[in-house]
Design a protein that fits this description.
This protein is mostly beta strands. The protein is built from one helix and ten strands, in the order αββββββββββ. This is Lipoprotein.
Length: about 140
C-alpha cells in the first residue's frame, strides 16, 4: 500500500510539472509577479475588472489596463505592540498603466511596511512605471 501511495504521489508531481507557465505571446505584454518576502503571496486577480486567467502572471493586449492583485503578508509583532502575535493581512491592490507594449516583459513587485502594502510596476529597464493603490485589506 505504501508503494502504491508513493508511486501515485510521484505521478501526480510529474503531471503537475507539465503545467508550467506558458511561453509569452509576442503580440501581448507579459507581467511577472514577485513579492519581496518569502512568507508572502502575490496573486493576479483581474485585468480591467475581468477575472485573470492565471493567478501567477498577467498577459495583456497592448494599451491601457488596470491590474488587480491580491497580496497576503504577515505584520510582525514589532509593528503591533508588546505581547502581540504576528497578524496576517489580505489586501487587494490596483495598478493602472496606460502604455503596455506588445512583446515587452514587465514586473509587478509587492512588499509592505508594517500594516501598509505597496506595489510597484517596473518596465524591462527596471524603471518604476506604476504604483499600486490599495483597494481594501482585511485580517486573516
Amino acid at each position: 500500500m505504501r508503494k502504491l501511495m508513493l508511486t501515485g504521489g510521484l505521478l501526480m508531481l510529474a503531471g503537475c510539472a507539465g503545467f508550467g507557465i506558458p511561453r509569452q505571446d509576442p503580440t501581448q505584454a507579459w507581467i511577472d509577479l514577485e513579492s519581496q518576502q518569502e512568507d508572502t503571496a502575490l496573486q493576479a486577480l483581474a485585468v480591467d475588472k475581468q477575472a485573470a486567467n492565471d493567478k501567477r502572471y498577467f498577459e495583456v493586449q497592448p494599451g491601457s489596463h488596470e491590474l488587480k492583485v491580491r497580496y497576503q503578508f504577515p505584520v510582525q509583532p514589532s509593528n503591533i505592540g508588546p505581547n502581540a502575535e504576528t497578524l496576517w493581512r489580505d489586501c487587494q491592490i490596483k495598478v493602472k498603466f496606460n502604455d503596455f507594449s506588445a512583446g515587452e516583459r514587465y514586473q509587478l513587485q509587492a512588499g509592505n511596511i508594517g500594516f501598509r502594502p505597496w506595489v510597484r510596476l517596473y518596465d524591462q529597464q527596471r524603471k518604476v512605471i506604476g504604483k499600486g493603490i490599495p483597494a481594501g485589506c482585511q485580517r486573516t
